[in-house]
Amino acid sequence: MTMMKAAVFVEPGRIELQDKPIPEVGPNDALLRITTTTICGTDIHILKGEYPVERGLTIGHEPVGIIEKLGSNVKGYQEGQRVIAGAICPSFTSYACQDGAPSQDGGACGCHGYKPMGGWRFGNTLDGTQAEYVLVPDAQANLAPVPDALSDEQVLMCPDIMSTGFAGAERANIKIGDIVVIFAQGPIGLCATAGAKLRGASCIIAVDGVDSRLEIARQMGADVTLNFKNVDVVDEILKLTGGRGVDAAIEALGTQLTFEQALRVLKPGGTLSSLGVYSQDLSIPLGAFHAGLGDHILVTSLCPGGKERMRRLLNVVASGRADFGALVTHHFALDDIEAAYDLFGHQRDGVLKVAIKP
Amino acid sequence: MTMMKAAVFVEPGRIELQDKPIPEVGPNDALLRITTTTICGTDIHILKGEYPVERGLTIGHEPVGIIEKLGSNVKGYQEGQRVIAGAICPSFTSYACQDGAPSQDGGACGCHGYKPMGGWRFGNTLDGTQAEYVLVPDAQANLAPVPDALSDEQVLMCPDIMSTGFAGAERANIKIGDIVVIFAQGPIGLCATAGAKLRGASCIIAVDGVDSRLEIARQMGADVTLNFKNVDVVDEILKLTGGRGVDAAIEALGTQLTFEQALRVLKPGGTLSSLGVYSQDLSIPLGAFHAGLGDHILVTSLCPGGKERMRRLLNVVASGRADFGALVTHHFALDDIEAAYDLFGHQRDGVLKVAIKP
Amino acid sequence: MTMMKAAVFVEPGRIELQDKPIPEVGPNDALLRITTTTICGTDIHILKGEYPVERGLTIGHEPVGIIEKLGSNVKGYQEGQRVIAGAICPSFTSYACQDGAPSQDGGACGCHGYKPMGGWRFGNTLDGTQAEYVLVPDAQANLAPVPDALSDEQVLMCPDIMSTGFAGAERANIKIGDIVVIFAQGPIGLCATAGAKLRGASCIIAVDGVDSRLEIARQMGADVTLNFKNVDVVDEILKLTGGRGVDAAIEALGTQLTFEQALRVLKPGGTLSSLGVYSQDLSIPLGAFHAGLGDHILVTSLCPGGKERMRRLLNVVASGRADFGALVTHHFALDDIEAAYDLFGHQRDGVLKVAIKP
Amino acid sequence: MTMMKAAVFVEPGRIELQDKPIPEVGPNDALLRITTTTICGTDIHILKGEYPVERGLTIGHEPVGIIEKLGSNVKGYQEGQRVIAGAICPSFTSYACQDGAPSQDGGACGCHGYKPMGGWRFGNTLDGTQAEYVLVPDAQANLAPVPDALSDEQVLMCPDIMSTGFAGAERANIKIGDIVVIFAQGPIGLCATAGAKLRGASCIIAVDGVDSRLEIARQMGADVTLNFKNVDVVDEILKLTGGRGVDAAIEALGTQLTFEQALRVLKPGGTLSSLGVYSQDLSIPLGAFHAGLGDHILVTSLCPGGKERMRRLLNVVASGRADFGALVTHHFALDDIEAAYDLFGHQRDGVLKVAIKP
């Protein structure tokens, strides 16, 4: 009973299920028995070797599970309780955390405390969630109890997808009555679409190249959907807004094209909220940027974590304000995770998100 | 070497120096050997029995000291290092802390995590700093190293007075070119005056009844000083602003009169930032409140804590942007703390703040 | 054709339909032929003499109408176009307007430009909308075209009720996942309830004493409704939030009781957003105020106006995000406005809002 | 007396003094007799044909003058009064103006009201200030009286340089205790340096290649100055901040290099505030951008205008909080403006700004 199965990064191109010891629990940790987890686009980057992690690391950063064991300093939880933790799992004690940037947490450094993306630890700098067990560091700050009425599938999007997508909307400075466009309607874009609705946008334009995703975008709150294979997206949006442009544009893919289109349809004074993970230098076109005089705001966001964030997202799900159950299109046992990677990595069969159950 | 001297609340009217055991250090704690501390107005309320604390509690919440011993989980510091900690010493892991209200920290409660003023622990719910040693809880989040070039006296105001006074200015929504008034120029009001200058107010009006304090207010940045014994403060401020009122009014005393005057001189759309600790129900006069239609903002603030806050305040001192050394008017040994209470409590001899040294 | 009918304040207790000249149109004005207007609670205060206006003034501040004549400097509109203007009709050129407080517009004063509630001109300092025609000052800044697809009744709430109620929610600092309570579910409270939903609150608690209003509150987005005749509202809300309190409380009535309850259920660090028009000094209870140390924000709001505000609210109606058609419970001809005042003033027959048509 | 002298754009490479009719005054206009104006870097772009304006247009956008004649609707001013107006002169009535973007004012369009940089009219779309007289449009919103105690030279920076530079600091989200770097110490960069100090930065790093400008930067508030000819700026700043990076970086030149350096020294979660006018597409380096996951904010700003803005800047000058008199290094008569262009355009003789007097 001291060993567990875990999906491990072996080398570029290979993630395999292996046996590993169940981790020891320190005073500020909690050990979760994973009941459901999932695969993220970032995991595919890891698999391909595009995002480097240590060989032998357990992958995955989206945990739903049962508290198996609590560290001696962790109070207010019970073993046996069902919880989630954010994909980003900051200490909340560092300078960065106290300075409004917990996702950029550099941890216990006496002087500086910043590290780009440092709050992301599961499946990045610590063993992750695609396993039978995961150790949650700084558990006091990161465990959020799941209401009994909600299924694992209903809350599976909270740790990353919802938190990221909503952040894209929250940081887009949306006001009641805004026109907002969201470029790309993958899982994160769909959550950004729902987030734009929750912040009061009265006209939401969703852009993608897959009609079935645009259909789901409508369920999430899109008023207008544009398939970039059928229309010139920039022209169409400028036409829809009478040439004025949108109040906010959310980029949810990570390419030069979508970034640039987002800027081209943005009103002077508007906000471009970028969620995508880019893989090359970005170019800002001079004209769309009004030579730097457009009073634009460009904001990037990494997924917010922490138990308060998770508590809020759980409330959104529990209240029925947003329902992302439809995003879970496929189920796999942990034993079959390699097949799940294959399906998800190739985006076959209309997959949006897969539920993985040990 | 296991006992220490500590100023203890015995009963209303009596704070005495007693012997107490030096505290045990848990994994997330740090033990400081106090080198300098001070007495706050709140301590006088405790002494008088107006603010209830447990009998036997060590009083005081403003520590400058040397790390004597670090808990096993506290990283990035060294024993022997000189540090400060905020008067407010939150866990930074609770829901309240992650929700933007660390001073209202309810601690390790699984569900709710809020407690009014709960971040204030030294000399309130835990043994305080008027002692030879103090135990800092959640030390990872609360210890801020002091640059060698700064004396204890120079940084003694950081833990409470500067943090509180600056918060009054920071939360007053001050913009460059604002007219700001600060009611009362005790230690906190003087720091609020300095804070208003740091935020860009171009006309700062300081109000008090003691000319020597108004003199210091000028050093802190006041452009105009009004002694309420000599002028009708409300009339004078309305005259100074051509009847328009001030952009922001900071209340730094905690009385009906100053609160009400702050509102009466506030422009429609302005912010009243209240720092005072009130001792009775407040009345909002209907006329000055424009019957609730004045687009007013009224904000209250408890002293912000945490190592990032302390780091910033230390930077302000180190840069020479503000200098509160002049506020330390008297020095006492810890052995003479009862005399210090007597002087400070009766506001004799022009006292502003006293330095207490074990 | 130079005379029109208008509802005129004659003396306390008497508003009468009288004949008046149709106003002359200056270069920055527009003359509207009113097609629909309504009566507001404020008009009842005027009728009773509780809010003083000049005798002979035409009452009413909520216009839907057709542009009859445009001033020579007003560009971009056509005579014959259907428009609305806000109840608050600022110049947008004064210091107050440029300083973020257009509703407190003091107009064309070279030096100061502030006047409490000065942006409210219709039926307050200028002839109002309960007439066949109304003159809109600073028309360039205030006329908002109504989309053809929307009926007068659908947009009748935009000029005041929606703008005010939404402002209560917008200024309450609501974040996704918040718990928000709205005290009183009259027309403004109902709009605040809808506004809280539009800003992303995931649990909305509506309080009133009339079950039929609570029923409409549910349609507007309330998750929980509390009839204060049946339950102790404060106890119930604290129970619902596990003792923590709500993130934001909106007061939409203007009484000591509701204001005080709003504060008593507010979490430390929370925002009390007040919309009510108070008629006496308010008392802030010391305990609920945490003696001034609760990091509370208290904000008051007067209805925002201007064509951009109206444009946004029209977009909300057009998108179907909120539907306030149900608030128009009764219709009257302008000739019968005295009967309408009688019904509305006595709150008979379940009246929420009346549509008045010349 | 109906003709005046004006500096006119003839063709690329030629700005000449010509005779033009003194403009007619419409009801919302004011005619100023210019007493002092200046040349801006933008004017040099116009001269060179890099920024296109109509041939025959009078250049210049920084007016200090005397009201010669007021339009019939302009209230609260007197003919003979000394005033300034902002370089950006918005109507304040358009949708863009009411939506928080007055500098992007599209004017009196019924539907949309946005135009990139549309608030800039003097010397761009209307005749400018390098003339004996200038017509101020929407004068009610744009004229700001100058206190008698201030000289023309003291207030000459308000219309553009101060307003722009301060905006760079205001929009950089500076908090008390921040470390801020400003790239380039020309007139705008120097004002941004002063602005960073006014917002509470406790460590200000100024970067330029000219030691005499760095010397002035110190007077404006810089704590550290770096000459990029002597040190590797990025390395040096990272060293100064212990590898953490700065809280905010202000770009005040408009080149790829300075933009990129600003990003490279920015902490995760920090703000890059860009003031420069760029002349080519910008590239965002992937690494410094943390692939879009750094929680960065990038904000651009066009000079804010309007009488309230000018009033605040005049207050800053009057209070002595900042003194930009030293920036006026040379004086010319309007008759000699071609020589002034020659000097300023070639940056000879240590010129910062020139005062031009008709």
What does this structure look like?
Four copies of one chain form a homotetramer. Chain A folds into two domains: 3-87 and 122-160 and 303-357, Quinone Oxidoreductase, Chain A, domain 1 (Alpha-Beta Complex); 172-300, NAD(P)-binding Rossmann-like Domain (Rossmann fold), CATH 3.40.50. Chain A is built from eleven helices and 16 strands. Chain A has helices spanning 41-47, 95-98, 139-142, 152-155, 158-170, 187-198, 211-220, 233-240, 256-264, 307-319, 337-345; strands at 3-11, 14-21, 30-36, 64-70, 82-84, 133-136, 144-145, 179-183, 203-208, 224-227, 246-251, 266-274, 282-284, 297-300, 328-333, 353-357. In chain A, strand 9 (203-208), helix 7 (211-220) and strand 10 (224-227) form a beta-alpha-beta unit. Chain A starts with a strand and ends with a strand. Chains A and D meet through strand 12, strand 13 and strand 14 of A and strand 12, strand 13 and strand 14 of D. Chains A, B, C, D: Its cofactor is Zn(2+). Chains A, B, C, D: Keywords: Metal-binding, Oxidoreductase, Zinc. Chains A, B, C, D: Pfam families: ADH_N, ADH_zinc_N. Chains A, B, C, D: It comes from Serpens gallinarum.
